[in-house]
Amino acid sequence: MSTVWHVADVVGAHFETPTARTLRLRIPGLHGHLAGQHVDVRLTAPDGYQAVRSYSIASALGGDELELTVEELADGEVSPYLVRGVAVGDQLEVRGPVGGWFVWRPGDETPVQLIAGGSGVVPLMSMARAHAAAASSADFRLLYSVRTPESVYYRDELGMLEHDESAPLRVSYVYTREAPSGWPVAAGRLTEQTLSDSILPASTMPTFFICGATVFVETVSDWLVAAGHDPARIKTERYGGIGGAP
Question: Which residues form the FAD-binding FR-type domain (predicted)?
């Protein structure tokens, strides 16, 4: 982990949803990152007040660039500026990458089950992208719990990864508030039974990466342990945004 603050150039930006935006940053001296890591972003006001927030890296392994996908929080100090204010050509202060436990490394052939709640899909997308870039033969699956079809991050790319012949990603969606027209299941929260029906079985000894709001992560983790999955193979990451039960 680098404890030094660096100046990052914003070299790209686009919206994933009406309230979430991906920023591409170029950081001189950055020599790649691990899938699942995060960085700290610091904003400084004219009066000297500073606010620091951590954001997961969305992109796969790379050189001196990385991508962050930021969800706007109505009462946030940093996210509204990153989603609505920052422009290509601006600069941000960044520290990191940070983290060495909640990461996936190319070369690991263990089956992987990703479980995302809302914006918790961001670090898991980094893993899915790294899996595809490495043409890994590891069985990779994603269960994505999201409020509405309009709330889905990376929809088109996830569809492409599902059809990647060299390293396919199997994706299952749970829509909690509104399902797409013609969806075979009514909208509703993730249940223990739906979880069991949608993930790799305990017999395959998968590694789990779960990211979302605290209640979501804790509930899903408890269900997995109750279903016979090894707690040592359950890795979790929580965020402080709005969120309730699965």
Answer: 3-104
